[in-house]
Design brief:
By secondary structure, the protein is mainly alpha-helical. It contains 4 helices and no strands.
């Protein structure tokens, strides 16, 4: 159960992180943000990042072996990185129609899957 809770919280965290880091690139298409300056964009992104931390910190606390969770620190980091890339690819394909998923991206993901395998190998 702690495994699923940790992964679910990491997914939510990464959705907010991706919106904070890359969502503002679409703001110019929204009428109420067309004249927003850099400071405004930074503050909005910072506000979104707060929600990222509200999910990320509990995920790591619940999932970490040192707190009774199922994952080592290295395993938590690799899980987080894989989730980050999956969320980012889905986000970029849905919201940035000019972006595409190419063969070299697929190869990179295969290497990430290998990284997960080796990190979790006893």
């Amino acid at each position: 159960m702690k495994s699923l809770l940790t992964i679910g919280l990491l997914i939510l965290s990464n959705v907010f992180m991706t919106l904070a880091w890359y969502g503002h690139l679409k703001f110019k298409e929204l009428k109420w943000f067309e004249n927003a300056g850099l400071i405004t964009i930074i503050l909005i992104s910072w506000g979104l990042a707060l929600f990222e931390y509200c999910f990320q910190v509990p995920a790591n606390k619940i999932g970490f072996q040192g707190n009774g969770g199922p994952f080592s620190l290295m395993q938590l980091k690799v899980i987080q990185e894989v989730i980050t890339l999956v969320v980012f690819v889905i986000f970029s394909l849905l919201f940035f129609k000019n972006e595409s998923f190419k063969w070299n991206h697929a190869v990179g993901f295969c290497f990430l899957i290998l990284a997960v395998y080796f990190i979790f190998k006893k």
